Amino acid sequence: MTSAIGDLAHTLRQSRYTVVLTGAGVSTESDIPDFRGSGGLWKKLDSMKLLSLDTLYYEPELFYTEGLELLNTMRGKQPNAAHKALAWLEQRSLVQAVITQNIDGLHYESGSKRVLEMHGNLRTCSCLRCGAKTSFDLLVDAASRGEIPPKCRCGGTLRPDVVFFGDPMPPSFQEAIQEAQQADLMLVVGSSLQVAPVSYLPSLARQLAIVNLEPTPYDRAARIVIHDKAGIVLSKLVEHIKANLL
Ligand code: NAD
Predict the structure, then answer these.
(1) 81-91 and 230-245 helices cross at what angle (nearest 10)?
(2) Which of 83, 111, 210, 212 is the most buried (most CB within 10 A)?
(3) CA of 239 to the centre of ligand 1 (A)
C-alpha cells in the first residue's frame, strides 16, 4: 500500500483541482453501517422500501417509525480519521470540494467547508404544504410522541430533507456535475458507485483515484485503486504529505 499512498500523494499535488466523492463507506468507521458493503443495511432491512416516497405518502406509520429509526441510527456520530483527513486536505487547498452521498453531516462536523450533499441531510425537515423549513429534531420529537405524520404549524406534513427513492435530485447535483467536469482528479472514498445518478459523476473527471474496501465498476478506469479502509488510507496519505513538507 505504501507505494500506492505515495502515488496518490503525488497525483494529488499535481492536480490543480481535486474533488472528492464520498459514500456510506467513509462513515462506517464512525459506526454507521453502509448499504451494500458486507454487513450493510441493505442485507438487513428493506431500506429501499422504508426510505421511499411511496412509504412516506402511503404508509406514514411505517415511514415515521421504522424509516425514522433507520435515519436516527445515522445521527449523533463522530467524524472519523477519514473525514478529518479530507478536512485537512481542503484546508491546505489540496481538495477543492467534497461531494457526498451521505446524509450524516460528518464532513461538516470534521471541518470541511465546501460540501455538496447529494442526498440531503438530517439537520432540517420541510413542510409538504407551505415549504417552511424547521429543525429535524422537531420532527423526531413529534413522531416519538405519536404524532404521525408530524405536522407543521400550518397543518401540513413535515418530511425529512433527505432525498428518498422517488425524489428528484437537489439543485446541488448540477453544481456537482460542474465540479466533476472541472476536476483534474476525482478521489472516490467509500462508495460502491452503484447509486445513480451520482455514479455518473466519476466519468466526468479527468483522472480517478478510488479508496474503497471492495471493487467498484470504475476500478479499471481509475489511475489509482486502493482496497482498504478509508480511515487508514487517508491518515497515511496525510502523514505522507506532512513528512514531505518538512
Ligand atoms: P454503498 O453502501 O452502496 O457502498 C459503500 C461502499 O463502501 C462499499 O463498496 C464498501 O465496500 C465500502 N466501505 C465500507 N466501509 C469502508 C471503509 N471503512 N473504507 C472504505 N470503504 C468502505 O454506499 P453508497 O455508494 O454511498 O450508496 C448508498 C446510499 O445510501 C447513498 O445514497 C447514501 O445516501 C445512503 N447511505 C448513507 C449513509 C450515511 O449517511 N452515512 C449510510 C448508509 C447509506
Answers:
(1) 30
(2) 83
(3) 25
CB 164 near ligand 1, within 6 Å: no
Of 107, 119, 227, 240, catalytic: 119
What number does CATH give the domain 35-73+121-162? 3.30.1600.10
Closest C-alpha to ligand 1, atom 43: 34
pLDDT digits (tens, 9 = 90+) for 148-166: 999 999 999 999 999 998 8
210-213 long-range contacts, Cβ below 8 Å, gap at least 24?
211/187, 212/25, 212/188, 213/25, 213/37
The model's pLDDT over 79-109, given as tens digits with 9 standing for 90+, comes to 999 999 999 999 999 999 999 999 999 999 9
**CA-to-CA distance for 20 and 190, rounded, in angstroms?**
11
CA distance 239 to 134: 41
Coil, strand or helix at 161: strand
Q: Per residue in 150-187, is it b (16+ CB within 10 Å) or e — as a string?
A: bebeeebbbbbbbbbeeeeebebbeebeebbeebbbbb
The architecture (CATH level 2) of 1-32+79-119+171-246 comes to 3-Layer(aba) Sandwich (3.40)
